[in-house]
């Protein structure tokens, strides 16, 4: 920043530390070692009491170990910037999966702090524009070896000196001898580094690093120092998206004394000239494929701040984004802390200690994506790689739709309907309108398509929003986009699907999964079209909604892949999980249950409720001792053949209720929650997948779950909260109260809604948004009468009546 | 194009050919063989009589052999597009220099037709977006080996079947069995391909090829087929400029039946997914580093046209440029033919047969650059790689300033003053204002800086324009830009130059050349500042203008490089030419004469006129038999140590006149013209350098030359025309008449201006722009009295009087 920040003087005296000690107990505390270094700043000691209760219960470290792939760094709600530590970007291909969010809780060093991270993705990318402070006279421009301290700019650190709350992250860098703090606004990140008194302050800014940084990923980059001290630059990478441009603009709180822009690329046939004369490293510009910068500030008497904005559009956009959020570190942090308090306040949670932390953190994780992807001036980069302008909405991206259509997006329809209609749906439709393929996003980030996973699940997201009465978008354009996406023959065997009623496995891999997911998506088109009075479209897609039957093998009782000649592919092993197999990241056990819009029809094919319950039990209790899934990514969190770490299983525990045995759902939910979620870094049993794993817990914790988005119903499971309040955007409150919550009372005894007994096993969307009180009475033994009547079961038991 | 072009039916009957034969005599004729193939179109047979006399005299093949580096293809005056054949883009590094303009007249095959070419550059780049037609059932997507016919999409051709006139190029492709025609508008090129009746028509569009196509040059590219049939795309290359983005938009005259977008890149660690599903080649989009496209049209009953626009801004810019110039091949050709007639009409030339062709072609070559570089909507990419908008002018680039400040730009001040002020100067200043370095362009194309050659020669271009009364730009901003460029310490040893009064060779290579060129540029700043009343600036740079003396060694009589300690570097060999030597593409023989603003001062240091004449003779008559310059590029056209193929010598023949012996200048000019220019493909003895070699001939042919741009004077040499008329933009005519022009009369007998004897050896700029008649009388023997008086000699003999 041009204007220096307010003084944030080092303290460093032990007696003062002693006085503060009690207040610090609630934080990930700063160690005596950090104080001995003189590194602790006043801001770092600010206790979290200023934040409301809900933020204080969030632990951003949950999911940063194991397979969670979340990041602990600073992010504003749905922010474009995720400023977070990367513990290692020098991974080999296999390790990179574990570093998908840059940070692994068990790594011993931090390489630096970069601006972009996915929250729980199953693929490694981003990690743009990594910064690392350095002290003293010599500065290495290479990260060095994590096993050899001092071999590069990376630094050892200790979790004891680390703190993370929503919008703020801090750590003491032991080798760099610097206290590092991060905060983030919507499109800016602010670094604050406190150096030891007397140490010369430097920053290393590495444009080469990336999450999953294979050879050739970097297409081009540039960095430029402007006369006013602003630093801008860009990089283009070929990564998860075929290509991606990202721009930054950065200002420092202290005047720059010197700098070096170094091109480390070797073995280039021809580089031409770079810069006037002989291109010294202190020139104002450098372009190349392997750039690293050093900024030198000399000795400072206050912490050094570096405020950075990004843009997918251009450098002017990044400068505009920087200017759009004025203020220093503390100002940005204050704003973001308030924003988190506001957003997290949508669901007040009162639950036993570990559950409150798990649920609050889960809620936090649901509020990170889809991220803002458009600039403050409305411009954004679309799937055509061209720049467009969003009129009247903020363009959003990071659409992990195969995951998030299930529970993450339905949660948004309750607590963020404005974002769903004004921003997410409009962003999806705007993307379709400029897509080179004319279809809705599949897995898109920063406006760029990755073609990851299957289905056209932007469709249920839009339909669910429309059917819930969210109408802040052009419904005709949206329906047009949905139909185009569902009829684009080259996409994932859709041509064959339209011709045959199923995707043939000898023409298209993962055919069984595609067939059933397409059929569900089709049903949501039919539902929305019917609501819009578009009978032709409703009829066309209503018919297609039944296509799941064409891939179901009544003989084995499993969903199976059929060949073009109509036969099921053999050999058939319902436990096999392989890439390019009949299923997508799963097998027949998980996928055979995927008919959210017609479970009744499915159960009939499965020979009735009794057989269904037996099959569900068989799934949960499967003996995996002879099975090895170590070759398959994202297969984690196994309970028999129920795999909670990946999405196809997410609705399955609720199916007992459809079969008339809700107490079995209640049992399974406790089993899943107890085994798959923990209030620790290893607390997520699989990738959080941009909030889906967390949204499952939020809904399940409240006592209900959207098994079939588009149905306007939520299936009642069982609550894990003492009390929770949905503070709805319409000003109403929907309160969940649980009487008798304890491990000893795993079963629902009875339910009331607004004081009246609720005998059915599901809630209607309008009942929630109307506000009111849902009251559970828990007991030690199953209530085998509650919500078991056929008429009391979730909607899908009566699909025929409800259309589709 | 969406609308098909008018019918252009194949003729193919021999009797009709016989009737047309006479009319075709003036063309590079089409052979009987071509007709037998059925390839000759009506348009191709249109004789050039429609074009005015001046265009008809232009032979675009001049300079396409030897070291000329010109291209024969289609270009509009100063056009952004240069649509021209590339005979080989698969050169090795050494060969690439010879293919700097894509086409070598002695190559046996054409690889394809690409959209961008430099006219006579000393460096290979461009050659963007190469197209090649293909006939029949199988189409190769690789160029193949020129030595193995049929091994790829390239084709043999014969000069007998080739035609080139301004704005139009045609050739019969023997292997492809296609007649190919090219035309170009300002920002569009139009291909027209006539296939044999019954042959399936295809186009290969290769995004991989480039002039000097070393490994890694291609950073990224993309191609996309839009629903309306428009094809767009981009590529980013690291070439002469550190990076360069170019976009295209293309439409065809016939409906597309099929297409393939193929990614030929191998050995990539990770490519991600490209396009929906499994990414077949017929999807509407492809991105990658090695793309080639095939377009299939089936059998056509009329020629196929492909109209392509380019843009440095974005694909929308390219589409806008395509739309801004409506019309089919014939319409674009008609417009460009008229534009050439208009622009070439600025100088009417009546000269003996080969000279008329040489001069008309030279004039044509001066009207190609600086090219339009901004889009039809005013947007352009600047040296900061960002997009800007030109308000009230068209942004131009391709500034080969070290070459063109000498004669090309001064010629423009006479025949194109609007372009000089409104476009060239404004483009230069606009570039400076967004330059990361804050300085004027050095060697810039498509808005991107290459840092090639030395000096800040945008400065004399602007000063010369200002001093000549061209004022359509902000003079204060221009002077500011000039001063900043002349005081930017990191550029080419300028910091040392400002400190010491010369560039020290132990701190900066090519120090001697830099010192004298800086001193001249400084003098032009002083001149312009004085004219603006900016005495401080005039004084500062007037002083610097004398710095050339600090590098002149009176003892040896040569310009030499000094070291920081003040001594001249040894050993000293005035004939040595090496990279990184004391001089830039030259040696002491050529560079010692470079004091255009103070030849009188130089001559005094050289011990007077007599010694000067002896030294000039020694230079021209130097025995090179023991010297080998084959290691040095751009050293061609040697007459002793006078090297006409490169720019430092260009003014030297005129210096005899400064020394009081104008008849010796007259002799040398005839010697140079006779030996260095021919009306053949090998007709340029060195790179045309974006018009400088040609501008030398235009001026010299007219009888005068701008030895010192900024002086407002032209030194009289001797004319090579019978008669010429400068049709000045102010509506006046300045006529040159030569009585007694013949090889037998190499000397000027006398000169009159507007009927009155002109005894001085120079013309004033205002005398030309006032219009009038300059009449030469030629004779067989020298007139040793004309223009020999000291007061009659060119201005620089009296520098002291004129300031600077």
From TrEMBL, chains A, B:
- The signal peptide, as residue positions, is 1-50
Please tell me one Gene Ontology term that the record gives under cellular component.
cytosol
> What's the domain of life for this entry?
Bacteria
**Originating species:** Sphingomonas gellani
Keyword Signal carried by entry: yes
Question: GO molecular function: any one?
Answer: peptide-N4-(N-acetyl-beta-glucosaminyl)asparagine amidase activity
Q: Where is the Glycosyl hydrolase family 92 N-terminal domain?
A: 58-311
Q: Which residues form a coiled coil?
A: none
Please name the Pfam families in this protein's record. Glyco_hydro_92, Glyco_hydro_92N
**Domain Glycosyl hydrolase family span(s) in chain numbering:** 318-779
Q: Which UniProt keywords apply?
A: Signal
One GO-annotated biological process of the protein: glycoprotein catabolic process
Keyword set includes Signal: yes
Name of the protein in its database record: Alpha-1,2-mannosidase, putative
